[in-house]
Specification:
Blueprint (H helix, E strand, L loop, with lengths): L10 E6 L10 H9 L2 E5 L7 H11 L3 E3 L1 H5 L2 H7 L3 E6 L7 H13 L3 E4 L4 H4 L14 E3 L10 H11 L4 E5 L16 H17 L12 E6 L7 E6 H4 L8 E5 L5 H8 L5
Length: 271
């Protein structure tokens, strides 16, 4: 990977733009976006609100949005980067998805220079909740239910983390089709918690008893972290499921909180 910014030459610049607020971009990200000859945005692993999309376009001009097939089969993108400077904007940090690691490996094989500009990730933003980072276990994603397909692996990860007294970060799905080709539709808290509850019911139906009702679990709903519309709410999953809120969400299922963590959680407690 290259460490020098020679925007007049060829190469692929992978640029993390954080949660979408242009004010939170690094100076390196601003320089790269303004300097690269071609600018694209990866459009299927995260979602930029209409407000911030307009702010970005005012500040940096228009760009082409690339969906899943163009990222996982990037021949056209890499052909362009082999001759000119190309920026690929990624919401959050560029190395939080294996697809972007794949792009780096492909560039190295083709001897195309790659340049990484990191951005603020969700794993950084959840620090505002007040839970200690070293107490988080494996994170997972709650997928949209698809026909009769309902995996229980997210629930199994939560239960495993609970056994080890670790918190669980749950990312919420963006694509009901699972294909990554349509405009993202961020999952609502209601659908996410209902899906978790159905996993719990399936778990019991398959012969594994639950110690307590999933809906009674305490959890944290984080909405639009790092933006002007940020909200953090702490309550039972049943209470959080009734919250109506637009934008991007994630859930945290905490383990037994330490005293300082509990004080932090109580700041955003709701009935």
């Amino acid at each position: 990977m290259s460490s020098e910014n020679n925007f007049s030459s060829n190469g692929l610049w992978l640029i993390g733009i954080g949660p979408g607020n242009p004010d939170l971009l690094t100076l390196g990200a601003v320089e790269a976006i303004n300097s690269c000859k071609h600018v694209f945005m990866e459009g299927y692993t995260a979602h930029l609100s209409k407000e911030y999309l307009e702010e970005f376009q005012i500040k940096f001009g228009n760009w082409e949005i690339l969906m899943r097939s163009s990222i996982e089969n990037p021949e056209k993108l890499l052909e362009l980067a082999s001759n000119e400077s190309v920026a690929l904007l990624v919401i959050g940090d560029v190395l939080q998805a294996t697809t972007h690691i794949d792009l780096i490996l492909r560039c190295e094989k083709l001897q195309i220079p790659t340049n990484i500009v990191h951005g603020i990730s969700i794993t950084t933003l959840i620090g505002e909740v007040g839970l200690q980072a070293y107490r988080f276990g494996r994170q997972t994603t709650i997928p949209y239910p698809y026909k009769d397909y309902l995996p229980t692996s997210p629930l199994e990860i939560i239960l495993s983390n609970k056994i080890n007294n670790l918190h669980t970060l749950l990312l919420l799905d963006l694509d009901p089709t699972g294909m990554g080709e349509e405009k993202p539709r961020p999952m609502t808290p209601e659908i996410a918690i209902d899906t978790l509850n159905k996993m719990s019911q399936k778990y019991v139906d398959e012969g594994t008893p639950m110690i307590d009702s999933l809906l009674s679990w305490d959890a944290v709903l984080c909405s639009n972290l790092g933006t002007k519309n940020q909200e953090i709410k702490y309550s039972s999953l049943e209470t959080l499921s009734s919250i109506e809120s637009d934008g991007m969400h994630c859930l945290i299922v905490p383990s037994e909180p330490h005293q300082m963590e509990l004080l932090a959680l109580n700041r955003c407690s709701i009935e």
